[in-house]
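Quick one, tokens below. Sequence please?
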């Protein structure tokens, strides 16, 4: 830090010297907010509705409305998803509480639904703009005011996931994570700097030297508050506690080798962890045991453990100095103590030991199997199994990403010259977030902070190299009025001009260009989440299916450990792929079996030798209707209940994202086969794919299925569906109309009416009817069987020819006439009532 950046002698002079930078940061913040709110027209629609930008955003708005309906009681367990189990909400409570309090204040205690939607839509953009403040201060204390301002500019325009997740309408806790984790690092850094500058010792605590303790104590308390705020936005916030602990170990070792006291570090760490322990404790769910993803004893124990580590390392360091033990034994003692601690943990609590051991691979490792199909959980450096820097460059710009790597090397080199605690902190912080994006690209919204700071740090070093501070002082000395500016320009050296141009061209312009391109693209196209067909289908579901008998806005108590939630007899599930679960719940007000928390997916996790658990993956990949229905039956352990009454499918599930379904079962072979097209091999769907339940529903319209009937479809869009049908017709002798059909289709599981009769023994019998959908499209529904040796035959059919009845599904997709039964020269018409379909009644012909 240069001499110009140290506090000046008087408060008035300090204000005078810092106000230009304060004004600059404020302007940057408002520009950042403007960039993030440019696409407001795609969020606030002309019909007065508000469309949020992602499925998790819709879910946050759901939890927000429930909170406001029952304020201050929050929903921690939600029985209206992951039917029939329900789900504990792993989202932290703070993000919703901040929006709720803002809504209550602006609405004077009674906010309207539109006001709440408006607050929710703007919230991520506001938090994304505020983050320029801690980034500025971190940059300032790393390299001076110029570095801080440059860092603020870079984060204001930072592209990629950070910009995406802080745009208007992206109402998710990710931007709050970024803000509070950065504030945590800022205050922790300020506490370290303040405590070290004051040469704080633990004796100062015992002797109550408040003049020494006051500022470090305040910063440490604020660091603890911000860490708690971060963790109360996301339970996985222990990641940053881990980063600080690793930093602390290295800092203790460095200080010990340099024969310097680390009391400043111990004091900061103990106070920070103590505050966070106190603030996290009220939110712990004891029945969660040890879990990283829900507020459990794990979070309290890790905070207490971290506090113990700071205290123990400080105590050990003092003993080393008192006993004059060789400093080289210090890291060996730390290593031995760590191994011993793990051994004790394994003996005392195997579950906690397992969580600690597996946590690094969970965060930093590359996902396998089903989790590898989650877009945000894939590695930023691997695509289709090959190493690539494309996603890194697109998230941070090429120069930004390379500058961050170079910045870490420069900070590492400084360790051998003039190591400063806050420089080492930034280095360790940046390195581990880089490892985190290697494991999961979602952490790119964290790394954007590091990229901005490290890039600004390099820019600041460049300005320092061309003696920018000298030029600054000359300007202050020579420019007393605007008329002095032309003459002072002669003081500017050519290398200083080139340095500024270099920063503008290689650091600022790339992030500015990427940010404006993305923002204007969203402004033109919208986020399209959910798309119109899914919005329409969920609205239809809400209006035309029976009430499941649940209070949508109630706060329900979680069932006792090991017990199931007690649903009313009228409750039922809706089966779809997990991507769409929140839409089914928040827009359709129905209970999905699977949701974007990957609850209810089923399948396998580790080995193909595992039992294939019932869920969405096993249902949609089931090779027959019988096996698919067995999955629905197994989802609900109650003997008289099926796991789902409705099934929602879309064109993507049957085509572009179908591969994710078998990936969750770890049984991926045989769904596609290589086919020579004349110029190259191309993977096309195979027999196994066409036999899957998803294909039977979406591609074949459920034709031939006995207990699944289409009750609604949305408008058709151009998709890959036609290509799949062409493959089926060409290779397998099919006669499917090669047209796109409803983008989203809703099917109902029914018992089915049993049509029985007699024909000649062993004679082929066929039944068919024409189905007219709500879109005016027709398709043939047919089954065939062979009469037994006694001439008896039986069909189970799912469609009613008589229309819907009260308090049941109000379908408008149905047969256009009676069923036609035919064998030999005989044809008969058969009418089927809705009661017969729902109750499984027999109809004798």
């Amino acid at each position: 830090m240069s001499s110009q950046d140290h506090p000046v002698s008087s408060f008035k002079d300090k204000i005078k010297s810092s106000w230009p930078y304060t004004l600059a940061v404020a302007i940057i913040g408002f520009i950042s907010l403007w960039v993030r709110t440019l696409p407001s027209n795609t969020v606030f629609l002309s019909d007065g509705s508000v469309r949020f930008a992602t499925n998790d955003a819709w879910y946050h708005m759901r939890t927000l409305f429930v909170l406001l309906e029952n304020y201050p009681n929050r929903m921690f367990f939600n029985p209206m998803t992951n039917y029939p189990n329900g789900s504990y909400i792993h989202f932290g409570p703070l993000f919703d509480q901040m929006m709720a309090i803002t809504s209550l204040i602006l609405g004077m205690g009674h906010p309207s639904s539109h006001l709440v939607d408006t607050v929710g839509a703007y919230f991520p953009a506001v938090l994304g703009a505020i983050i320029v403040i801690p980034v500025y201060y971190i940059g300032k204390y790393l390299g001076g005011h110029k570095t801080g301002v440059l860092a603020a500019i870079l984060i204001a325009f930072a592209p990629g996931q950070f910009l995406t997740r802080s745009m208007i309408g992206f109402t998710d806790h990710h931007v709050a994570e970024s803000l509070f984790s950065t504030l945590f690092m800022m205050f922790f850094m300020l506490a370290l700097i303040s405590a070290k500058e004051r040469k704080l010792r633990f004796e100062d605590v015992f002797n109550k030297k408040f003049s020494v303790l006051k500022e470090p104590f305040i910063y440490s308390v604020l660091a603890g508050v911000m860490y708690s705020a971060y963790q109360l936005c996301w339970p996985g916030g222990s990641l940053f506690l881990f980063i600080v602990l690793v930093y602390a170990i290295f800092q203790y070792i460095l200080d010990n080798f340099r024969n310097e006291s680390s009391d400043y570090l111990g004091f900061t760490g103990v106070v920070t962890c103590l505050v966070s322990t106190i603030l996290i404790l009220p939110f712990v769910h004891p029945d969660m045991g040890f879990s990283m993803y829900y507020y459990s004893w794990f979070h309290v124990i890790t905070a207490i453990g971290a506090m113990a580590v700071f205290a123990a390392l400080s105590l050990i360091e003092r003993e080393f100095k008192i006993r004059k033990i060789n400093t080289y034994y210090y890291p060996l003692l730390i290593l031995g103590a760590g191994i011993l601690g793990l051994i004790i943990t394994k003996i005392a609590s195997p579950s906690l030991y397992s969580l600690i051991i597996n946590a690094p691979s969970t965060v930093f490792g590359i996902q396998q199997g089903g989790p590898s199909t989650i877009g945000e959980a894939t590695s930023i450096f691997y695509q289709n199994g090959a190493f690539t820097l494309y996603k890194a460059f697109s998230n941070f710009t090429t120069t930004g990403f390379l500058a961050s790597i170079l910045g870490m090397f420069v900070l590492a080199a400084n360790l051998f010259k003039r190591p400063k605690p806050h420089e080492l902190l930034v280095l360790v912080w940046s390195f581990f977030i880089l490892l985190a994006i290697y494991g999961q690209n979602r952490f790119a919204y964290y790394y954007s902070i590091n990229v901005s700071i490290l890039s600004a740090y390099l820019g600041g070093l460049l300005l320092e190299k061309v003696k920018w501070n000298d030029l600054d002082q000359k300007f202050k000395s020579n420019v007393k009025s605007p008329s002095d500016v032309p003459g002072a320009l002669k003081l500017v050296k050519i290398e200083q001009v080139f340095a500024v141009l270099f920063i503008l061209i290689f650091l600022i312009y790339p992030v500015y260009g990427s940010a404006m391109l993305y923002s204007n693209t969203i402004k033109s196209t919208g986020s399209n989440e959910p798309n119109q067909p899914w919005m329409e289908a969920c609205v239809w579901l809400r209006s035309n299916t029976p009430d499941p008998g649940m209070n949508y806005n109630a706060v329900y108590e979680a069932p006792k450990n090991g017990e199931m939630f007690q649903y009313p007899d009228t409750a039922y599930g809706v089966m779809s792929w997990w991507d769409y679960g929140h839409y089914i719940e928040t827009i359709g007000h129905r209970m999905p079996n699977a949701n974007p928390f990957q609850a209810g997916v089923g399948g396998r996790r580790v080995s193909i030798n595992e039992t294939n658990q019932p869920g969405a993956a096993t249902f949609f990949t089931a090779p027959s209707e019988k096996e698919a229905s067995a999955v629905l039956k197994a989802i609900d352990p109650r003997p008289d209940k099926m796991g789902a009454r409705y099934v929602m499918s879309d064109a993507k599930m049957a085509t572009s994202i179908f591969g994710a379904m078998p990936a969750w079962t770890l049984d991926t072979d045989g769904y596609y086969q290589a086919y020579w097209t004349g110029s190259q091999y191309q993977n096309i769907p195979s027999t196994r794919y066409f036999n899957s339940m998803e294909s039977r529903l979406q591609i074949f319209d459920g034709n031939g299925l006995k207990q699944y009937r289409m009750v609604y479809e949305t408008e058709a869009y151009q998709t890959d569906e036609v290509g799949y049908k062409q493959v089926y017709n060409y290779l397998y002798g099919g006669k499917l109309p090669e047209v796109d059909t409803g983008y989203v289709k809703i099917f109902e599981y029914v018992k089915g009416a049993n049509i029985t009769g007699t024909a000649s023994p062993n004679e082929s019998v066929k039944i068919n009817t024409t189905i007219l959908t709500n879109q005016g499209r027709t398709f043939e529904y047919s089954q065939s069987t062979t009469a037994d040796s006694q001439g008896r035959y039986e069909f189970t059919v799912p469609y009613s020819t008589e229309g819907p009845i009260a308090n049941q599904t109000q379908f408008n997709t149905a047969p256009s006439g009676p069923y036609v039964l035919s064998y030999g020269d005989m044809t008969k018409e058969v009418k089927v009532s809705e009661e017969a379909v729902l109750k499984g009644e027999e109809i004798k012909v």
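Residues 532-747 form a domain with the Rossmann fold fold (CATH 3.40.50.12610). The CA atoms of residues 57 and 171 lie 4 Å apart.
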